[in-house]
Amino acid sequence: QVQLVESGGGLVQTGGSLRLSCTISGIGFSRYAVGWLRQAPGKERELVALITAGNRPYYADSAQGRFTISRDNDKRTHELQMTDLQPADTAEYFCAAEFDDYRLQKGQYTYRGQGTQVTVST
């Protein structure tokens, strides 16, 4: 059984930081691209960042320079460090795993977590 368990969401003020973590079991973690997507009410789901099996990161324009994604294959965990958070970052964030990193780059995935809420107050 594949499980993706997220942690780290919450409420933060504008300019603050949060770190999201996702632990994945039930798949060959090291062979998958993993990442984070988000969806705000009334908006389309969007990829925030991903990191390939080869440890190459990819960021959406909105995340570039503010967010950092990393992975630890031994712990089967990947994290998203978010800094300088803005109200526009408010959304439900969920982690995802996809064998084909190109598909994940397009926002497509095979496995996803339940999501964690990030709220940035003004």
Give a summary of the structure in a few sentences:
By secondary structure, this protein is mostly beta strands. It has one helix at 101-105; strands at 3-7, 10-13, 18-25, 33-39, 46-51, 57-59, 67-72, 77-82, 91-98, 111-112, 116-121. Strands 2, 4, 5, 6, 9, 10 and 11 form a 7-stranded mixed β-sheet that branches. The protein has a 4-stranded antiparallel β-sheet with strand order 1-3-8-7, with no helix packed on it.
Explain how this protein is built.
The protein is mainly beta. It has 1 helix and 11 strands, in the order βββββββββαββ. The chain has one helix at residues 101-105, and strands at residues 3-7, 10-13, 18-25, 33-39, 46-51, 57-59, 67-72, 77-82, 91-98, 111-112, 116-121. Strands 2, 4, 5, 6, 9, 10 and 11 form a 7-stranded mixed β-sheet that branches. It has a 4-stranded antiparallel β-sheet with strand order 1-3-8-7, with no helix packed on it. Strand 5 (46-51) and strand 6 form a beta hairpin. The longest helix has 5 residues, at 101-105. It is globular and about 40 Å long.
